[in-house]
Amino acid sequence: GKKGILEGVKMIVTAGATKEKMDPIRYFTNRSSGKMGFAVAEQAAKEGADVLLVTNSQLEVPKGVRTIHAESAEDMYQAVMANANEADVIIKSAAVADYRPKKIYDQKMKKQEGDLIVEFERTKDILMELGRTKEHQFLVGFAAETENIDHYAQKKLQNKNADMIVANDVSHEGAGFQGDTNIVTIYKKDGSKTELPLMSKQDVAHHLIKEIAEAMKEVR
Ligand code: PMT
């Protein structure tokens, strides 16, 4: 059939929330469903990319996409870093926990008198590490913000050494977590930005894939 615009491109996509355990039955997580990242994986595979999806989400895996199951931020870090060298493009649409409980209890924590104080420690920043160690990879981060979107997106581009940042205003109706639609702005290294109107996550993914294919032509 018709040749896709990402034919022969090796891609890693991360999607959905991570889960950070506190004991065998309790964990901390966030509202990410994985829909945005799964849409990216699906559209990329349709365009001929060889896609590895790293996720904890139970959504149906798109046709032709390989997956690695990763529950925690640490699991995701390990899975992504182990495969990063071979990848041409890495898209970090997962909502990775920034903190995890400092201690994981082997047994169910029992109720005690009074308040419970849980200590958290920072997880590894996967995007930051990818940016620090990157050689040839085209690196795409997402940004979920509720204010100062332009500012934070530009900062993420620089601080994390990413080639592209996809920012969604998660305070907007129809954008961000869980729904089937999103409103995003795509920021590129050259300072340009593309604001997309409200559309399905599949359409957002399609636009994003086109932008990536274009941008990769320019750097190569
Ligand atoms: O899954 P859905 O329900 O469809 O929702 C989609 C989404 C809103 C989750 C998605 O569009 C999105 O914005 N994903 C990124 C959410 C996020 O965690 O943003 P952040 O601003 O906290 O992180 C910025 C970037 O750093 C992200 O690319 C994130 O994957 C990455 N990161 C963050 C923390 C960490 N420890 N490691 C990382 O790699």
Automatic annotation (TrEMBL):
UniProt keyword annotations, A-Z: Decarboxylase, Flavoprotein, FMN, Ligase, Lyase, Magnesium, Metal-binding, Multifunctional enzyme
Recorded GO CC terms: phosphopantothenoylcysteine decarboxylase complex
Pathway: Cofactor biosynthesis; coenzyme A biosynthesis; CoA from (R)-pantothenate: step 3/5; Cofactor biosynthesis; coenzyme A biosynthesis; CoA from (R)-pantothenate: step 2/5
Reactions the enzyme catalyzes: (R)-4'-phosphopantothenate + L-cysteine + CTP = N-[(R)-4-phosphopantothenoyl]-L-cysteine + CMP + diphosphate + H(+); N-[(R)-4-phosphopantothenoyl]-L-cysteine + H(+) = (R)-4'-phosphopantetheine + CO2
Positions contributing to CTP binding: D98, K108, F142, K156, K160
Listed cofactors: FMN; Mg(2+)
The keyword Metal-binding belongs to this UniProt entry's keyword annotation: yes
Any GO molecular function: FMN binding
Chain residue ranges for the region called Phosphopantothenate--cysteine ligase: 11-220
Cofactor note: Binds 1 FMN per subunit.
Residues covered by the DNA/pantothenate metabolism flavoprotein C-terminal domain: 6-214
Domain of life assignment: Bacteria
A GO biological process held by the record: pantothenate catabolic process
Function: Catalyzes two steps in the biosynthesis of coenzyme A. In the first step cysteine is conjugated to 4'-phosphopantothenate to form 4-phosphopantothenoylcysteine, in the latter compound is decarboxylated to form 4'-phosphopantotheine.
Family indicated by similarity: In the C-terminal section; belongs to the PPC synthetase family.
Protein name: Coenzyme A biosynthesis bifunctional protein CoaBC
Residues of the full protein shown: 184 to 403 of 403
